[in-house]
Amino acid sequence: MDMMKIRSARDRYRLLFSIVIVAILLALTWALIPLTFETNDDAYLMGYLSGGRTGKPEADIIFSMFLWGKLVSVLYNVCATIPWYTLIFLSLIALSLVTVCYCVVSSFPEWGGSLFCLLYFCMFLYYSVILQYTTVSTYCGIAAVSLMLIDRKEENRKNIIIKNIIIFCFMFFAVNIRFRVGYLVIGSAACAISLEILRYLLKAADKRKIKNMVISFITICVAAGISIGVNNIHESLGGWEDFREYNAQRVPFTDYSKLEYESNKDLFDEIGWSEDFYELVKRWFFMDETVNAETLGRINERNVHGSIRVGRGLLHDWFPKIEFQVIVWVLLLIFLFADAVRHRGGRYKRSIVSFAWLFVWFVETQYFGYTGRVIERAFEAWTLLAVIPSILGMAGDRSAVEEETEKKGKSIAGCVVISVLALLLCIICARHPSGGYVRAKAFSLARSEIKTVQANMEDYAMAHPENLYVYGTSLSGEGSPWRVYREGLPYNLIFWGGSFYHSPLYYAQIRMNGFEHIFMEDFFEENVYFIAKEKPDENLLNVMKEKFPECTCEITDEADGFIVYRYNE
Predict the structure, then answer these.
(1) Which of 2, 338, 471, 507 is the most buried if burial means most Cβ atoms within 10 Å?
(2) What's this model's pTM, rounded to 2 decimal places?
(3) Rounded to an integer, what distance in angstroms lies between the CA atom of residue 273 and that of residue 543?
């Protein structure tokens, strides 16, 4: 009984320690680096959830699931002047990191804090300040899998229930915020169970832990199943079927290698696309009757996507941050394995299995490359979902380590050496060009002007609510994470295509502006204007003159960071 009280007090201490260390790390990060979105996807999602794009908060958003959208949209309905989207993201990041830190400290009682700090600086720092919905979803998934891997022999039924409720909540957010990440989380959890079974066959694990892991895995699957089921039922009633059919063709067209125009001119002549128009569509210009599931499907049938070889060269040239993480990951596994060998007692048999995660990670990355679509945020998500379970899998029997520590006493000198070494490595990770801090700082500063221009565009549109303003890729549309609308909504500011084109959300926005559709003949309406960074888009002007030979273009206004122009017949 006394031992159980001691262990319970020890767990409370570790939780408090985790809260404090994560709070310090995040506070320093957020104080030194301004928060920003990594892509314009989050600005779009926040715009629909807050009502900025459609005039009222929307629960249906294409990248996330209905339950998540409903939760956030209700909060914006209650109080639209609070940046709920960003605040929820920051809260989930903090809670996820506290959970991971607690699991790491529990698994490595002697120097788990130092290990977590190293993981933070080389794995977590970047996406803790450069917000991205895919990675926030990943953080929640990592927290769920980490709790699944934690083993307490003395754990009672009540604690198991509480743990699985927390796992359910984390998985709920993981799959709802980014449903494709939810599938990766399920895959990561399944791999973790498979490797635990392998440890059992090596007599380095017991059935009790596997049973508990299976229960947690079922909890993860139930959270995903409920979320996916509710979302599918809702979408079947919400008119999303046509959009899904169109989007299935849009994704391979926009996200994969593009078809050569000259060698396929016969096809483009058949569908009525000139070279200028094709260049526009490659830059997400979809405002034409000929941009639909049928035409995109015909192009996709002709276009054979080549696989991408995922090796050291690709990581070094395309994704140096991930290459840096993988190098640190391998070194950590080697260090932890050496520590397991030092402890002897057969624990090295358990730890060596974690190296299988390197193979699992490699196979999955090769699959990404085979499909011909290697996107950094998906690559990063899978990397994190392999790193953390492999690190936690390196831990031996926690109770045995604690008993050994209690008998021999902690090696103060050893802990100091490891802590100092970890601190030095954290500094190296922070200062390395491919490390989290340097890259995050540079990225955030580079986005400051873009956020200002986006805010100016929205203010300009709200000042002229009678007009509709269309902007293209010369202006990225990446808004501030803290953007709220106290006076008016910029629902009359619209991108000329994008991921939401042909969706119910797109039509809801243009109907707010008095249109049933917006095609090229509608550009001559008196209240339709275009916004560009420095000059009107040349490809669009050429296409307009192809269709309407007497068409002219005039600049009507210049503002801070952009120009406004329109087309005349």
Answers:
(1) 471
(2) 0.93
(3) 10
CB neighbour class for 96 (10 Å; exposed up to 12, middle 13-18, buried from 19): buried
- Find tokens 């994969």 and name the residue: 256
Distance of CA 406 to the CA centre of its chain: 42
Quote the CA–CA distance of 24 and 299 in Å, as a whole number: 52
381-435 residue pLDDT tens: 999 999 999 999 988 655 455 555 544 445 565 566 677 777 788 888 888 888 8
Q: What is the pLDDT of residues 85-117, one digit of tens each?
A: 999 999 999 999 999 999 999 988 888 888 999
CA distances from 111 to 1, 117, 175, 334, 411 (A): 27, 10, 32, 16, 11
The two tokens of residue 452 are 């200002």
* Percent helix / strand / coil, the chain, rounded to 5: 70, 5, 25
Whether pLDDT at 520 is above 90: yes
Categorise residue 82: left if φ over 0, alpha if ψ from -120 to 50, beta otherwise.
Answer: beta
* Helix, coil or strand: residue 46: helix
- Side-chain-side CA neighbours of 164 within 13 Å: the count stands at 19
Structure tokens at 96: 């996820």
Higher pLDDT, 198 or 151: 198
The distance of Cα 470 from the centroid of its chain, to the nearest Å, equals: 27
* Maximum separation of any 2 CA atoms in the chain, in Å: 91
**In whole angstroms, what is the distance from residue 376 CA to residue 99 CA?**
25
Determine the Cα angle at 545 with ends 279 and 290, to 5°: 50
CA separation, residue 376 to residues 95, 315, 369 (Å): 24, 10, 12
